[in-house]
Specification:
Elements: H1 2-24, H2 53-58, H3 65-69, H4 75-82, E1 90-92, E2 98-103, E3 106-111, E4 125-131, H5 132-135, H6 146-153, E5 158-160, E6 163-168, E7 171-177, E8 183-190
Antiparallel strand pairs: 1-2, 2-3, 3-4, 4-8, 5-6, 6-7, 7-8
Length: about 200
């Protein structure tokens, strides 16, 4: 009996020591759990505001490359892509025959540069007259500045009285400045060097 009581006391001491050690460890007597990891939540990035007014003006602006690529295309291309017909051109006969077709606020000019022969399906689009808001999506009406044009096209290549010509991808863009110093709405896109 004495051996049994010594054994019980020893067993009690072992349990007490184990309980004390467990109590002093981090987490105390709470059940052990496998920690779960969660991916850090990323906050959506926002555009950093800038004090540079030019960056603010250019934000969201671009060049309408599709419109520019139409210069030099034959009339047959416009027939295929837009259904434009030779008979639908408004014709002008002061000098070589010139035809034009207006869609919305954009006018496509066709001139065969071959003397006074009539226009054909192979007559190229030699000029496009459109609002600069079509050429430069993202630039609002009245917001165009020389700084924006230089940023998009580089310095102008020619200057006439109230006109400045810029070049992009082999195509000339002629911008007129009105009497009040602002840019006119209409820009002429062509491979020729004059407004006419």
């Amino acid at each position: 009996m004495r051996k049994l009581s010594i054994l019980l006391v020893a067993l009690l001491l072992c349990v007490a020591v184990a309980a004390c050690q467990n109590w002093n460890t981090p987490g105390g007597n709470t059940p052990t759990e496998t920690p779960t990891t969660t991916a850090p939540t990323e906050t959506p990035s926002t555009a950093v505001p800038t004090d540079d007014p030019l960056n603010n003006e250019l934000q969201g602006s671009s060049i309408n490359n599709q419109l520019i690529s139409l210069v030099g295309q034959p009339l047959s291309y416009f027939t295929e892509e837009f259904g434009l017909q030779l008979e639908g051109l408004e014709m002008f006969y002061e000098g070589p025959p010139v035809g034009e077709y207006t869609v919305g606020e954009t006018t496509y000019v066709f001139n065969n540069y071959l003397g006074y022969d009539d226009l054909t399906e192979e007559t190229p689009c030699t000029a496009i007259h459109t609002k600069y808001t079509e050429l430069l999506p993202g630039i609002e009406r009245g917001a165009l500045t020389e700084e924006i044009l230089i940023e998009l096209f580089g310095p102008h290549i020619e200057e006439y009285d109230n006109q400045k010509m810029y070049q992009y991808d082999g195509v000339n863009m002629l911008f007129k400045i009105s009497a009040d110093g602002n840019y006119d709405d209409v820009v002429r896109i062509s491979k020729m060097l004059s407004w006419e």
